[in-house]
Every structure is written in structure tokens, then in C-alpha cells.
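Whiteboard transcription, Tuesday session. T.W. wrote the C-alpha cells on the left side:
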């Protein structure tokens, strides 16, 4: 796998790092492929409970797709469809993961960076971050699934501002529109907040996280596609689990619970 996208595991926390800082972490085809591989590894590891997605270099989260490789990767026969399908597999791997995913946005979040960010459960950014979707500049199209993830979060009007109006959002504007959950100061304050949040989630009840993720995703589906029986089953599983008993005992004993996911 390419060294332009990296992964590491710190206990219950998995890290996926876009590592192309010379190009502001712009994504190439091999990086899209790497996303699927890394996410499959994290998803299959029962010890991983939360995944942090970030960009290397301290300047950019992801500054879109690597335009310099468009002719090589997207212009040949069937190349664009292969590229699009590869990218969607990577995004779906994040969006459909049962683990909690955090987009740690420190700097530019443009184009494909937006697509990656809105595929994550949680999005937090530093105060220097900027957000945009310059699709009109390159004649790029977006499939329904990709746009629906953005609209589910910020709605149609703000999506039009970004995609049609070409507006860039500051960190505070992104917060006001609901694109990010919190804006933090740059540097150590941001890194510490991400580390603390990831550790808090990693120490939480994994069955609850799984149930909440599934049920919230179900709410966003068309009514005909909702598996409400599965939602109820997962709800009941939480209360039948040893983790529930452990959580109640830990609260009564004023100690930190030790959840096992059972």
C-alpha cells in the first residue's frame, strides 16, 4: 500500500493519516484504495473502538483530489468510472463502519476532503480551517450518495452556497452551519482536544456506540428501507449486556467502568 496514506493503532484508537503534505494531502487513486484497506483492518480488529482521520503536515486536512493526476487516473477508457467507484468504496468504508469515526480537520478541507469529513460521525476543526467544494471550477460531478451525506448535515441551501456559489466557509461559519461540532484553537489545544475526545469514546460502551450509530443512520433512510426490528433488537441488547450492569455498578461505586462489548 502507498505511503501517502498511513495507519497506526494506539490501544483502542485507530489513526488513518493522509500523508501527502507536499500537495496539501490531495488524494490520488492509490490513496482512495488505501482508505478501504485501512478501514477493513480497523473494522476487523475488536480492540479498535474509535478511528481518527487526519492529515499530515499541520496545514491541510485534505485539499481535494490530486488534480495533477487527473489525466493519468481519470481520462482513459472507463478510468473515470473506476476512479469514482474506488473513491466511493473508500468513503462507504468510513460511513458504514461500526466504529466511531472522527475527522480531525486542521487546515484546508476542500473537495474530496469534504467528502471524507462528512463520511465521519464527528467533525472537529482548528480555527485556521477553511472549507470549500470547487466542483464548478473543474467540471466535476457528484453522485447522489456523496451529495446526500453533505445535505444530511448542512442542508440544501448551504450545500448550494458551497457547490454552486463556490463559497468557502471559515471554521466559525462551518460551525454555524453544523458542518463541524466544535472549533478549537490551533496547535496543542486542538491536538489535545482530539486525543481527549477519542480516549473518552474509546472508554465508552461499544454496544451503545454501535446501537446509536445504526439507529441514527436508519433515521436518515427512506421509510421503506428502515429495519426498525433491527433497531429494537440492538436497543434490547444494550440492556441485556454485562456492559450495562458494569456501567451501573461503576456509577454506584464512583469508578471508571470497564466495558468489554458483551
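and on the right, the sequence the group agreed on:
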Amino acid at each position: 500500500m502507498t505511503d501517502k496514506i498511513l495507519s497506526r493503532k494506539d490501544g483502542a484508537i485507530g489513526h488513518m493519516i493522509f500523508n501527502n503534505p507536499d500537495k496539501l494531502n490531495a488524494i490520488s487513486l492509490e490513496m482512495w484504495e488505501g482508505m478501504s484497506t485501512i478501514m477493513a483492518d480497523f473494522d476487523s480488529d475488536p480492540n479498535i473502538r474509535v478511528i481518527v482521520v487526519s492529515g499530515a503536515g499541520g496545514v491541510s486536512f485534505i485539499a481535494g483530489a490530486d488534480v495533477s493526476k487527473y489525466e493519468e487516473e481519470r481520462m482513459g477508457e472507463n478510468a473515470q468510472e473506476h476512479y469514482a467507484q474506488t473513491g466511493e468504496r473508500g468513503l462507504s468504508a468510513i460511513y458504514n463502519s461500526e466504529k466511531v469515526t472522527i475527522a480531525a480537520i486542521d487546515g484546508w478541507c476542500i473537495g474530496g476532503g469534504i467528502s471524507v469529513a462528512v463520511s465521519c460521525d464527528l467533525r472537529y476543526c482548528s480555527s485556521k480551517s477553511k472549507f470549500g467544494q470547487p466542483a464548478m471550477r473543474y467540471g466535476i460531478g457528484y453522485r447522489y450518495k456523496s451529495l446526500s451525506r453533505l445535505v444530511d448535515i448542512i442542508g440544501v441551501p448551504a450545500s448550494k452556497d458551497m457547490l454552486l456559489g463556490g463559497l468557502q466557509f471559515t471554521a466559525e461559519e462551518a460551525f454555524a452551519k453544523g458542518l463541524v461540532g466544535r472549533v478549537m484553537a490551533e496547535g496543542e489545544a486542538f491536538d489535545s482536544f482530539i486525543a481527549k475526545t477519542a480516549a473518552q469514546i474509546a472508554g465508552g460502551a461499544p454496544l451503545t456506540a454501535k446501537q446509536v450509530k445504526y439507529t441514527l443512520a436508519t433515521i436518515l433512510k427512506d421509510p421503506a428501507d428502515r429495519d426498525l426490528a433491527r433497531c429494537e433488537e440492538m436497543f434490547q441488547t444494550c440492556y441485556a449486556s454485562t456492559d450495562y450492569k458494569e456501567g451501573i455498578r461503576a456509577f454506584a461505586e464512583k469508578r471508571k467502568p470497564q466495558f468489554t462489548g458483551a
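Someone added at the bottom: The chain is about 50% helix and 15% strand.
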